[in-house]
Amino acid sequence: MSKIINGKEVSAFVKEKVKTEISLLKSKGIDVSLAVILVGENPASKIYVANKKKACEELGITSLEYLLPEETTTEELLGLIDTLNNEKTVNGILCQLPLPKHIDEQTVINSINPKKDVDAFHPENVGRIMIGDFDFLPCTPAGIMEMLSYYNIGVEGKNCVVIGRSNIVGKPMSMLLLHKNGTVTTCHSKTKDLPNVTKTADILVSAVGKANFVTADMVKEGAVVIDVGMNRENGKLCGDVCFDEVEKLSSYITPVPGGVGPMTIAMLMKNTLTAAKKQNNIF
Ligand code: NAP
Predict the structure, then answer these.
(1) CATH of segment(s) 139-261
(2) Ligand 1 within 6 A of 207 CB?
């Protein structure tokens, strides 16, 4: 029987520490602020943005919301980002992805000042993560590392398998596990005989986005299983992992909901705090 990794508990722990530091900064006259840009009407994005706003309010971060219409052009969006880049009172800038198809996503990411890039998607920050000299880490993989650490799950020397190679989850996840001296394999849709690879994992991270994708026959007994997937099945939120069957043989497992999800927002708050400290030369 698996031990459940409680993302709500770990995120509360992280947020409490961030809140304390934010109030300390406030007492020094430093107000921490995060600008969140949402373009269009994507319902999932609207929920994420609302949750980010709520977390900011909880922790004492000033949240600035920019809700732009679907027909916003790349140029208009770049104009707003330029203003926010130059606005001293704005510490972090986040542009909620995905953007409408007519907007060039990479150009938008590239336009955010790397020092305010609290998602850590800018190529400069991605490069710095690669060489292990970073200010910010992408929120979801960083949240997973925080959960492993909270539960004293060591990575060094372990076989780590990450399913998925997206720029926002899979690739940085593999890199962070490598930085912690894991032996890392990254799988994707062209990987041959996936179950044979995943069965070697002491730590298995699934970031695929398909319900019921990871079944018990793909998991080694005693493995730590981290489920990043956020899928809807019959209107219900679920991960990539067949929880009921995998839970019986894994040592630790994250549930969906209540696992990785809450960590992502907590780490965004942490990154915003880090940005504010760096911009005010507080180390
Ligand atoms: P993505 O960009 O769609 O990437 C999915 C990855 O899965 C790709 O690398 C793809 O391989 C791989 N894949 C697809 N089918 C596969 C198969 N049959 N076998 C092996 N690999 C396969 O998705 P993402 O943005 O990384 O997100 C992944 C999931 O995590 C989604 O459900 C998303 O909603 C969720 N998510 C959750 C959080 C959170 O806070 N909990 C945050 C971010 C994302 P190819 O590269 O070969 O196409």
Answers:
(1) 3.40.50.720
(2) yes
Task: Give the CA radius of gyration of the chain.
Answer: 19
Domain ranges (residues) in the chain: 30-113, 139-261
Q: How confident is the model over 55-92, as pLDDT tens digits?
A: 999 999 999 999 999 999 999 999 999 999 999 999 99
Q: Which atom of ligand 1 is nearest to the CA of 210?
A: 32
283 pLDDT tier (thresholds 50, 70, 90)? confident
Over residues 10-45, the pLDDT tens digits come to: 999 999 999 999 999 999 999 999 999 999 999 989
Partners of 68 in the β-ladder = 39
Beta carbon of 143 within 6 Å of any ligand 1 atom:
no
Q: Which of 205, 201, 207, 206 is nearest to 219 (CA)?
A: 201
Per the annotation, the verdict on 96 as an active-site residue is yes
Nearest Cα residue to atom 8 of ligand 1: 164
pLDDT tens for 115-171 read: 999 999 999 999 999 999 999 999 999 999 999 999 999 999 999 999 999 999 999
Q: 188: Cβ below 6 Å to ligand 1?
A: yes
What gap in Å lies between CA 15 and CA 128, rounded to an integer?
A: 25
pTM of the model: 0.97
Residue whose C-alpha is closest to residue 249's, from 207, 228, 221: 221
Supply the CATH classification number for the domain 30-113.
3.40.50.10860
Residue with the smallest CA separation from ligand 1 atom 32 is: 209
Taking alpha carbons only, the member of 26, 17, 147 closest to residue 91 is 26
Catalytic residue among 15, 96, 115, 117: 96
Q: How many CB atoms lie within 10 A of CB 95?
A: 25
Annotated catalytic residue within 15, 116, 117, 119: 119
Equal CATH topology for 30-113 and 139-261: yes
pLDDT of residue 260: 98
